[in-house]
Structure to design on (157 residues):
């Protein structure tokens, strides 16, 4: 799927955001419907630890904000998405450029909105792998997200 002007601007905004830029993470693709976002994390002198591998903080920075942003865009106004919990398992030292892709399907959005019919808050977990070009997994990250609905304020409160 191609990129739109809006998704290209979103990508640019992500790449210019100081916390992302300083970690050397680069968003390389955002689909026009915000269902898919791809990230690249190169091994450089800025990301390298004393062992010649990508630092753990950079690995986490490569996955931290992106699902929240995609869910925020896909759920639309009236909803809020938050990180709730994260767990990272380092599988092997990242001594090369690593990649990951975040995907939010139409079914994910339909299911979250359906679950709001019976509750005020919805929680969901996603697994994210940081891999090289061969698909070798260097880190496994499990992130739990919490979604809520904005409540209308009553007049006078």
């Amino acid at each position: 799927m191609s990129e739109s002007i809006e998704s290209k601007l979103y990508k640019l905004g992500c790449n210019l955001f100081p916390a992302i830029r300083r970690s050397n993470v680069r968003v390389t693709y955002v689909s026009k419907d915000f269902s898919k976002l791809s990230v690249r994390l190169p091994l450089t002198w800025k990301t390298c630890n004393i062992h010649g591998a990508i630092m753990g903080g950079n690995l986490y920075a490569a996955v931290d904000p992106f699902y929240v942003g995609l869910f925020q865009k896909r759920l639309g106004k009236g909803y809020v998405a938050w990180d709730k919990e994260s767990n990272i398992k380092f599988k092997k030292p990242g001594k090369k450029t690593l990649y990951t892709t975040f995907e939010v399907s139409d079914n994910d959005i339909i299911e979250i909105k359906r679950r709001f019919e019976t509750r005020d808050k919805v929680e969901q977990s996603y697994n994210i792998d940081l891999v090289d070009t061969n698909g070798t997994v260097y880190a496994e990250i499990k992130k739990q997200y919490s979604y809520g609905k904005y409540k209308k304020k009553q007049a006078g409160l």
Notes: The chain is about 25% helix and 35% strand. The beta strands are 26-30, 36-41, 79-90, 98-103, 121-131, 137-149. The mean pLDDT is 92.
